[in-house]
Amino acid sequence: MSPAVFREYLRTFRQPATIHAICEDYRAAASIDLEHDKVDLDKKIQCALLVLWSEKGPFHRMYNVLQTWQDRAAVQTQGSVMPTGHFLPEQMPKELTQYIRTFLRA
Description:
Elements: H1 3-13, H2 16-29, H3 32-40, E1 49-54, H4 58-62, H5 65-71, E2 77-82, H6 88-91, H7 93-105
Parallel strand pairs: 1-2
């Protein structure tokens, strides 16, 4: 992550509204999002999927991420682990952009 991007994170994370929004997102993930997921559990995603995840994050250690999404999709799912931490777009912006461009051209 570049120093300029890091400074911007610090600036925004000092704002109460930012912290509130982050907390609300995590709260929803542990409550209403689970209810919505249960309702949709038997439905298959109908569009093409590109799944990219962090090598240093817990999902890579705990799950077969690509297979998890493939099981939820009606079409072939593409994806790859990326050698990053939590902030994938900030840590590998060029590589991420290339993955997305290639996916959208297919």
